[in-house]
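Lecture notes, unit on protein representations.

Consider one protein chain, 450 amino acids long.
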Amino acid sequence: MPMTRDELRRKAESDGIEFFFAMFVDMHGKPCAKLVPADSFDLMMDGGAGFAGFAAGPMGQTPADPDMIAIPDPDSYVQVPWQPETAVLMCDIAVDGELWPFTPRVILKRALAGLAERGLTYNVGFEAEYFLVRRDGSGGIVVADELDSAPAPCYDVKALTRMYPHLAQVSRYMNQLGWTNYANDHEDANGQFEQNFRYADALTSADRLIFFRFMVHTLAQRAGMAATFMPKPFHNLTGNGLHVHSSLWRGDVALFADDDDPRGLGLSRMAYQFVGGLIDHARAAVAVTCPTVNSYKRMGVGAPASGATWAPAYATYGGNNRTQMLRIPEGGRIEHRGCDGSANPYLALTAVLAAGLDGIERELDPGEPNQDNLFTLSAEQVAARGIAAMPPTLLHATEALAGDAVLREAFGKGPVGDYLDYFVATKQAEFHEYHRHVVGWEIDRYLTLF
């Protein structure tokens, strides 16, 4: 049952809470908050926390618009482990008394409400990769652990041990919060780590990912480092993915599982249809799951050694095969590898759910699982198999997104038009701003060439 206001008050008093962060995220997934004293609990719960929406980030507002009011969700309450006198409350934004439809969390909640009307629950597990870095004194960054320079550092116990204080603290805090941290490892790139927590319903998992990033950033800074979830912070190292594990449930029944699957992956007919939808909408949805210009520098084709890529270049599915966009690690769930560390989880999950449900509605069959190592196939071989390549840039991806009617409906409308058009315009402006910059590579290549 949802936590009531009085239950929230008693919980906060029992935990000794002095301040609340009334928090929301903008389109980019940037957390924004006001620090509200516990003495103002009733004021916060009755009237919310006010924000000038245009100043907060892309939230569909202009300087002429009324304040955005952040309405706390009691069920999202998290006591901050490293600052236990404070707590975070994730908020839904309202304007003039109505939920603001350009709020990422509101967009996902609307999609989940439609799913609940069908008696279904969308469960999600995230795998969030990040780097620990330091500034190098000349405006660049270097791996924080100067000894972490092995050519193949994945799972290196020595590098893992050197970062043990940071990793162990994050793990302790996740378990203190009840998230069930079940693994922590050094990933494929120097300075790259992953810390996993158990799946939950989609809204809870998205809220937790926002808090997880906030926690990792804060603890890294306190240790004299910086954490980054940027998709490709180093040109010569593997980038940061955000793998999304999806499953649909009806009560306690796992609807994606089937031990008698003739294809041998342990998936139900519904799960295969969900896969079909993800593949069909992949070139459009990637604008949401990989939403920055930097995202497309992470994708490519090459042997998966450190310094190359683990990011999918094609819209395919397969079994326990990490060259596919959709990997089936075991029966009953689908791992979407076409999502990266810059994704806003509320928007990304809305896109994944809408694409998958469309596959179910249309009863799409994705065909037989792909068994190939897609990193070694030629372009001609890929084309012969009818496999769609992912867009090469954010601009290409947003052009595909603009024409996707299913995703357009899923993201909904607002006072200034469809959210999808607002998202596309914002991201295309981001691309064009980036494209205007002249970088060192161009100077090195072209300065005296002609």
